[in-house]
Amino acid sequence: GGNVVLKVDPHLRTLLDFHYKQHFRAQRGRHGEGGKRTGARGADLVIRVPPGTQVYDDETGELLADLVEPGQEVVVARGGRGGRGNAAFATATNQTPRYAEPGTKGEERWIRLELKVIADVGLVGFPNAGKSTLLSRVSAAHPKIADYPFTTLQPNLGLVRVDDTRSFIMADIPGLIEGAHKGKGLGHQFLRHIERTRVLLYLIEATSADVRKDFEILRNELRNYSESLLQKPAVLALTKIDLVPERPVPLPKINGLPVFPISAVTGEGIQELLYALAEELEKLRAAEKAEQGAG
Predict the structure, then answer these.
(1) Cα 188 to chain center, whole Å?
(2) Strand pairing of 199-205 and 121-125?
(3) Are 163 and 111 within one domain?
(4) Residue 89's domain spans which residues?
(5) How far apart, in Å, are the Cα atoms of 199 and each of 75, 168, 182, 210, 236?
(6) Three-state SS letters, the chain
(7) Which residues of the chain have pLDDT under 50?
(8) Strand order of the sheet with strand 4-8?
């Protein structure tokens, strides 16, 4: 029979389709036949998944594949061997045996798929911090926007054009709350995606009673999930600045990060923020290029 194959399709963004269909079967092969005919092989079943899909054996928890590159494939269930035709059993005294071998059964297994979004910039903030509004302002993405927590239940990606020569992918990811590293709220779903982003953009509402405290809560959740998340380059923005009539100018740095006051509604501060993010990505690429040259 045919194999069941997972293949990366760069045009897909979610695993939502697998909520509605969870059983897949490749085409069945045929048994060996008389007339010297070997059993025909069944066609492979190719299932398309988005970049960033991790494939686990559901029973053992073993990671079978980390599918990142467009076109990358992995066979998750192999088809059985086709049966041999009667000619395979011919002997000197019996040139046309009346026996043909049946094919063998194919592999059957349960797998678990997890998606870690791959993006240049990942938005880190509490629910309702203005992440979706920002993404809709700077890209052609149209995430669901509403004035209540957890409007974003799955990642949304948008292509952000900084200028004529620079662009990057931004990911709006479900909001983070205190206790997320323990799975509270949408914690693990959020933090899993942040692992694959290259630069973090912290978003905190300008109306917050204590911006520094909120920033430390966000960083602490990342730290408790994985210390490596704090090693990523980061930028900090205060959102909804249009709701704050008076504010200090310039805003002081927080934890060594410059603070960008922005309004996704009026557009204030947006271009300066995009320039800063583009510069962080350029530094990363330059460092990676130098590392490759040294290697």
Answers:
(1) 13
(2) parallel
(3) no
(4) 1-115
(5) 33, 11, 23, 24, 11
(6) CCCEEEEECCCCCCCHHHHCCCCCCCCCCCCCECCCECCCCCCCEEEEECCCEEEEECCCCCEEEEECCCCCEEEEECCCCCCCCHHHHCCCCCCCCCCCCCCCCCCCCCEEEEECCCCCEEEEECCCCCHHHHHHHHCCCCCCCCCCCCCCCCCEEEEEECCCCCEEEEEECCCCCCCHHHCCCCHHHHHHHHCCCCEEEEEEECCCCCHHHHHHHHHHHHHHHCHHHHHCCEEEEEECHHHCCCCCCCCCCECCECEEECCCCCCCCHHHHHHHHHHHHHHHHHHHHHHHHHC
(7) 31-34, 36, 38-39, 143-153, 179-187
(8) 45-49, 4-8, 73-77
Pairwise CA distance, residues 63 & 254, whole Å:
39
Rounded Cα–Cα distance for residues 149 and 127 (Å): 5
pTM to 2 decimals? 0.64
Same-domain status, 221 and 160 = yes
As for how many domains the chain has, the answer is 2
**Among residues 41, 46, 50, which one has the least CA distance to residue 8?**
50
Q: Are 233 and 199 in contact (CB under 8 A)?
A: yes
CA–CA dist 11, 187 (Å, integer):
26
Q: What interhelical angle do 270-294 and 131-138 show, nearest 10?
A: 80
Q: Which residues contact 83 (CB under 8 A, 6 or more apart)?
A: 29, 30, 31, 32, 38, 39, 100, 101, 102, 103
Rg (CA), the chain: 26
9 and 95 part of one domain:
yes
> Both tokens of residue 20?
């509605």
Half-sphere exposure of 149 (CA within 13 A, CB side): 8
What CA–CA distance (Å, rounded) separates 135 from 264?
9
Query: Of 202, 206, 210, which Cα lies nearest the Cα of 256?
Result: 202
Separation between Cα atoms, residue 139 and residue 9, nearest integer Å? 21
